[in-house]
Amino acid sequence: RRARAMQPEHRGEDRWDKPRIPGERRRRIFRERDRPEAPPEPPHTGFVVFVGQMTVKIRHDRPNQPHDQSRVVSEIAKIWRVGMSEEEKAYYNQFATEAKNEYDQQVVEYRATGSFRPSHSFSRLEGTNIWIRKHFQNGLEKEISQYTTCQFPKRPAAFDEAYNQREERSVLRRKLKLKGLVNDDGTLKNGLDFEELLLKEREKNHQQQGQKTSEDGSSIDEGTTDDNEAIAEDMIVAGDDVIGMDDTDDTLVAVSV
């Protein structure tokens, strides 16, 4: 009974990594080590430790450049293979070995008592999963531990507008493709104008945001004249089909005329 109670998959909402939030995904927890109160699991290898620390340094040193983690890992791998001595690699390999041994002891203590003693040798940078030594740090660890923050935005603010525009185009094209309105060569069927559809989609999203932020929170009743006019504005006649915005699932629908 006690062992069953400690398994999160048998404990209702504790099976998930976060509460149910409409519109967000959550991950089901099957492992004991995934529980929030369990001891944090350190990186498995010294190379993973080095990648985490170097990623923080690169993101700090390139605040105005977009971040591509796959490209950054390739750069770090070259440094690991060519730019580091065997002694420097041994430091990180020893780091991973000692952290793993300490973690195993914490797991035994946690399973026996439900709690564990914090590490005396290792810590994580605030708000991240980047591991460093508390004492006897190397030059890289000393540098990144002095940063005012190690939490960086997904991209520089100057790139937000271009990113949002690409995302809008990608979402609209996926909607059209799901409805079978995209040819094999990427062109639209029935003479549809992608730019015109994109403009209508932006106008609709803008109106929806305005309704959400309105102070009175009032909504238009179904079947009213204003609602019918809004629907008419959102429809584009192209050939023998009428392409309209379906407000129920925010997708494009094709209705034969």
Task: Give the SSE layout.
Blueprint: H1 2-6, H2 46-61, H3 69-83, H4 86-113, E1 122-124, E2 131-133, H5 139-144, H6 160-178, H7 194-213, H8 225-233, E3 236-238, E4 241-246, E5 251-256
Antiparallel strand pairs: 1-2, 3-4, 4-5
How would you concisely characterize the structure shown here?
The chain is mainly α and 257 residues long.
Keyphrases for this structure?
three-stranded antiparallel sheet; two-stranded antiparallel ribbon; mainly alpha; elongated
Unreliable stretches covering 5 or more consecutive residues: 230-257
Number of strands: 5
Shape: elongated
Strand content: 5-15%
Radius of gyration: 27 Å
Helix content: 40-55%
Mean pLDDT: 79
The helix count comes to: 8
State the distance separating the first and last CA atoms. Answer: 65 Å
Q: Which sequence of SSEs, written as H and E, runs from N to C?
A: HHHHEEHHHHEEE
Structural class by sheet pairing and helices: mainly alpha
Lateral strand order in the biggest sheet: 3-4-5
For the report, how would you describe the main beta sheet?
3 strands, antiparallel
